[in-house]
Write a structure and sequence with these properties.
Largest sheet: none
CATH architecture of the domain at 17-92: Orthogonal Bundle
Strand content: under 5%
Shape: globular
Number of strands: 0
CATH superfamily of the domain at 17-92: Dioxygenase LigAB, LigA subunit
Length: 131
Protein backbone atom coordinates (compact mmCIF):
# COMPACT_ATOMS: atom_id res chain seq x y z
CA UNK A 1 0.00 0.00 0.00
CA UNK A 2 1.33 3.38 -0.90
CA UNK A 3 1.14 6.50 1.23
CA UNK A 4 -1.18 7.97 -1.41
CA UNK A 5 -3.58 5.10 -0.81
CA UNK A 6 -3.61 5.56 2.96
CA UNK A 7 -3.77 9.37 2.70
CA UNK A 8 -7.08 8.90 0.89
CA UNK A 9 -8.48 7.68 4.24
CA UNK A 10 -8.10 11.23 5.57
CA UNK A 11 -10.66 12.39 3.01
CA UNK A 12 -13.48 10.46 4.72
CA UNK A 13 -15.43 13.02 6.78
CA UNK A 14 -15.85 12.17 10.46
CA UNK A 15 -13.85 8.96 10.18
CA UNK A 16 -10.39 8.13 11.44
CA UNK A 17 -9.03 4.95 9.90
CA UNK A 18 -6.59 3.19 12.22
CA UNK A 19 -3.61 2.86 9.90
CA UNK A 20 -0.13 1.48 10.61
CA UNK A 21 1.05 5.09 10.93
CA UNK A 22 -1.58 5.81 13.60
CA UNK A 23 -0.73 2.54 15.36
CA UNK A 24 2.92 3.57 15.59
CA UNK A 25 2.05 7.09 16.71
CA UNK A 26 -0.35 5.84 19.38
CA UNK A 27 1.55 2.81 20.65
CA UNK A 28 2.24 4.22 24.13
CA UNK A 29 -1.19 5.84 24.38
CA UNK A 30 -2.82 2.50 23.65
CA UNK A 31 -0.50 0.68 26.08
CA UNK A 32 -1.48 3.20 28.78
CA UNK A 33 -5.13 2.43 28.03
CA UNK A 34 -4.51 -1.31 28.31
CA UNK A 35 -2.88 -0.77 31.70
CA UNK A 36 -6.32 0.28 32.95
CA UNK A 37 -7.47 -3.32 32.69
CA UNK A 38 -5.90 -3.89 36.12
CA UNK A 39 -7.89 -2.61 39.10
CA UNK A 40 -4.79 -1.34 40.89
CA UNK A 41 -3.82 0.73 37.85
CA UNK A 42 -7.31 2.19 37.55
CA UNK A 43 -7.16 3.22 41.20
CA UNK A 44 -3.72 4.82 40.76
CA UNK A 45 -4.95 6.66 37.66
CA UNK A 46 -8.12 7.91 39.36
CA UNK A 47 -6.15 9.03 42.43
CA UNK A 48 -3.75 11.24 40.42
CA UNK A 49 -4.19 11.22 36.65
CA UNK A 50 -1.24 13.50 35.91
CA UNK A 51 1.15 11.46 38.02
CA UNK A 52 -0.01 8.20 36.43
CA UNK A 53 0.32 9.62 32.92
CA UNK A 54 3.82 10.88 33.74
CA UNK A 55 4.89 7.24 33.94
CA UNK A 56 4.14 6.76 30.24
CA UNK A 57 6.14 8.18 27.31
CA UNK A 58 3.16 10.06 25.89
CA UNK A 59 3.39 13.31 23.97
CA UNK A 60 2.10 16.45 25.66
CA UNK A 61 -0.82 16.44 23.23
CA UNK A 62 -1.69 12.83 24.09
CA UNK A 63 -1.53 13.55 27.82
CA UNK A 64 -3.74 16.61 27.44
CA UNK A 65 -6.26 14.71 25.31
CA UNK A 66 -6.52 12.05 28.03
CA UNK A 67 -6.91 14.65 30.79
CA UNK A 68 -9.57 16.47 28.71
CA UNK A 69 -11.24 13.17 27.77
CA UNK A 70 -11.11 14.39 24.19
CA UNK A 71 -11.59 11.05 22.48
CA UNK A 72 -11.51 12.53 18.98
CA UNK A 73 -8.11 14.08 19.71
CA UNK A 74 -6.92 10.75 21.10
CA UNK A 75 -7.99 9.07 17.85
CA UNK A 76 -6.12 11.71 15.86
CA UNK A 77 -3.05 11.06 18.01
CA UNK A 78 -3.03 7.33 17.35
CA UNK A 79 -5.53 6.02 19.86
CA UNK A 80 -7.61 3.02 18.91
CA UNK A 81 -11.25 3.13 20.00
CA UNK A 82 -11.08 -0.36 21.50
CA UNK A 83 -8.17 0.69 23.71
CA UNK A 84 -9.76 4.07 24.52
CA UNK A 85 -12.75 2.14 25.82
CA UNK A 86 -10.63 1.31 28.87
CA UNK A 87 -10.56 5.02 29.76
CA UNK A 88 -14.28 5.57 29.53
CA UNK A 89 -14.98 2.33 31.36
CA UNK A 90 -12.65 3.59 34.12
CA UNK A 91 -14.78 6.74 34.23
CA UNK A 92 -17.95 4.64 34.51
CA UNK A 93 -19.22 5.55 31.06
CA UNK A 94 -20.84 3.12 28.68
CA UNK A 95 -19.64 2.84 25.11
CA UNK A 96 -22.83 4.63 24.03
CA UNK A 97 -22.22 7.54 26.41
CA UNK A 98 -18.61 7.98 25.38
CA UNK A 99 -19.16 7.69 21.64
CA UNK A 100 -22.06 10.14 21.74
CA UNK A 101 -19.61 12.75 23.10
CA UNK A 102 -17.45 12.14 20.03
CA UNK A 103 -20.35 13.06 17.73
CA UNK A 104 -21.52 16.08 19.72
CA UNK A 105 -24.94 14.48 20.02
CA UNK A 106 -26.92 13.92 23.22
CA UNK A 107 -26.90 10.25 24.24
CA UNK A 108 -30.60 9.74 23.49
CA UNK A 109 -30.29 11.29 20.01
CA UNK A 110 -27.20 9.23 19.21
CA UNK A 111 -28.84 6.04 20.44
CA UNK A 112 -31.97 6.70 18.38
CA UNK A 113 -29.89 7.40 15.28
CA UNK A 114 -28.05 4.11 15.70
CA UNK A 115 -31.25 2.16 16.41
CA UNK A 116 -32.67 3.69 13.22
CA UNK A 117 -29.81 2.34 11.11
CA UNK A 118 -26.99 4.83 11.76
CA UNK A 119 -25.97 7.87 9.78
CA UNK A 120 -27.39 8.26 6.32
CA UNK A 121 -24.98 7.35 3.51
CA UNK A 122 -26.23 10.51 1.78
CA UNK A 123 -24.46 13.78 2.42
CA UNK A 124 -20.88 14.90 2.94
CA UNK A 125 -18.63 12.29 1.26
CA UNK A 126 -15.30 14.08 0.76
CA UNK A 127 -13.32 16.48 2.91
CA UNK A 128 -11.32 17.74 -0.10
CA UNK A 129 -14.38 18.33 -2.22
CA UNK A 130 -16.50 19.69 0.62
CA UNK A 131 -19.38 17.50 -0.49
Amino acid sequence: MSSTYTSDFDDIPGTRVFTAQRAKQGYHLNQFCMSLMKAENRERFKADERAYLAGWPLTEAQQQAVLDRDYNAMLDLGGNIYFLAKIFATDGLSYLQAVSTMTGMPVDDYQQMMLSGGRSPEGWRSVKEGS
